[in-house]
Design brief:
10 helices; globular; 347 residues; two-stranded antiparallel ribbon; 65% helix; 2% strand; disordered N terminus; mainly alpha
């Protein structure tokens, strides 16, 4: 079999630019074609939490076969590409490999297929699985990023959380995170039909960018600190806008909760000056003070809910991974066996 990891001369920058252009262009296509989906009759709305209304009223066997079959094909394809790349011991490069191109083409193809599937059958995986599963798949993805980045940028105001449990669990996650990230993004992507509400449009744009990031594995762009931060911060914009549309009394919890993660953790991996970091903190404190002076200072505890949840889950996940590593006899890191899954971040 030919070595599909051989570089083909396409630079990572060109690949990123073309990929981002595709993401925005396809989001525009979903918006333009959105009115065509009005012909589908949807199930009745119900005033219960996490009731997802974008499900057809009369799905058929072929509806389920289309979405689950396409999802499974997409999932297995990306898992195989990740495995193939890792099994060949690919190193980090500034050019796209053949396997990167295959991943980009595969994701673009399945994105197009989902668009067609939506306009023929409408339903996504929401037909059979709860909305919480989609939400938590992405939340856990963001938590894993916190753990993996702990040794570089720290977890709390630039301070690293040490201990063998944190270090070794992060090492295992760096090696295998691609499989989980591929599942979380592809599962969430196929959960939703490609409808054109503002929340769906921004959500699909976010998923497209995550799929693009996943396609760039073993390139230096994949570990570029600004590109990685973009993936983390976009959830702030998406979560806030969706809350403004669906739960306007809680938008500030999502906005300042995710912004709090940026202040406490994410901005400390950018090499910013002390003055810049204090400036971001000042803007955050003033913004929180102004908003909650209007909505009620008694609700200010909302800003802590998302950060505390993510940090708490991070420690629980680290413990679970650590226990699994022990039970499976996962080898400890040694100075003579560097972790090939980890690369220094691109500035």
């Amino acid at each position: 079999m030919p070595n599909i990891s051989t570089t083909n001369g396409i630079s990572q920058t060109r690949g990123l630019i073309l990929g981002v252009g595709f993401c925005f262009g396809f989001t525009g296509l979903i918006w333009l074609a959105g009115d065509r989906l009005d012909a589908f009759q949807l199930r009745a709305d119900r005033p219960i939490p996490f009731w997802y209304p974008w499900v057809s009223a009369a799905p058929t066997f072929w509806t389920r076969l289309s979405v689950w079959g396409c999802y499974a094909a997409h999932q297995l394809t990306l898992w195989w590409l990740i495995w193939r790349s890792q099994s060949q011991g690919s190193g980090y490069s500034k050019s796209l490999s053949r396997i990167n191109v295959l991943a980009l083409v595969a994701n673009a193809g399945f994105i197009t297929l989902h668009f067609v599937q939506t306009h023929v059958f409408y339903d996504g995986l929401a037909l059979d699985v709860p909305e919480q599963s989609s939400q938590w798949s992405v939340i856990l993805l963001l938590v894993i990023v916190l753990l993996m980045e702990n040794q570089r940028r720290g977890l709390f105001f630039g301070r690293k959380v040490g201990g063998r449990m944190m270090v070794e669990s992060a090492r295992a996650l760096r090696k295998y995170h691609g499989y989980y990230f591929a599942w979380a993004t592809i599962y969430t992507f196929w959960y939703h039909p490609m409808v054109s509400t503002p929340g769906h449009l921004l959500g699909f744009l976010y998923m497209f960018l995550l799929l693009l990031q996943g396609s760039l594995f073993f390139t230096r762009m994949h570990v570029n600190r600004w590109w990685m931060l973009t993936q983390e911060v976009l959830v702030l914009i998406h979560g806030t806008l969706v809350a403004l549309s669906n739960a306007p009394d809680f938008w500030q919890m999502f906005c300042f909760g995710f912004a709090g993660l940026f202040i406490v953790t994410q901005m400390h991996g950018l090499g910013l000056s002390v003055r810049a970091r204090w400036g971001f903190l000042l803007v955050y404190v003033v913004s929180v003070s102004v908003v909650y002076s209007q909505v009620g200072i008694g609700q200010i505890h909302q800003v802590t809910l998302i950060p505390l949840t993510e940090y708490g889950v991070a420690f629980v996940l680290a413990a679970i991974v650590w226990v699994v590593m022990k039970l499976c006899g996962y080898p400890r890191a040694t100075s003579s066996a560097p972790d090939q899954a980890m690369a220094p971040p691109e500035p």
